[in-house]
Amino acid sequence: MKGIITLVLSLLFPLTLLSQENDLTDIKTGLAEASRRLSSVSCDFIQTKESPMLSEKMLAYGRMSYKKPDYLKWEYDKPFQYAFVLDGTEVSVTENGKTSATDIGRNKAVREMARIIKGCIEGTILSDSGDFDSSVAIEDGIVYVYLQPVNKELKKMWSKMVLEYSPEDWHARSFELQEISGDITTIVFRNCNYDFSK
Q: Which of 21, 131, 135, 178 could make an S-S bridge to 151, C-beta 3.0–4.6 Å?
């Protein structure tokens, strides 16, 4: 399960810190408004994995699509083919041509993973859970949101998440996941197409 969570979240610098309380409120408001209007999004992504165990960075390429209220497809094209699909109450994984499915309601770990993924995509991760301590910073017009796990189970896997947003439109630009093991996974979103409700 940790691998799937890391895979999907991998949904996510020296900085000048701001007045945290006011800025965090403004950022929550901006993300909530953008989320309210967002119907769907599709993006290409580049994922970089760094590990103390690897001599070189690992690169992977793929595509992500999301449609409200709860459809997410995270698909890798290179160097391997792998797909993770969250559709309502079902999660399916396709690897090597074989698909397996799990009902979210029957598996607490999958249910929590789905909640966190959705929270990162919709921008509600800052306000709807006690899973993370949040802080924000802005540098060169980019908003950085830092999430430090406080949930006991999450603290076993991750030390920090860093989400990068454009404050003009509140679109996610990148996501970084720092694992307890020292591994760092960074995902940069490109060629994004957004559909907004009227």
A: 131
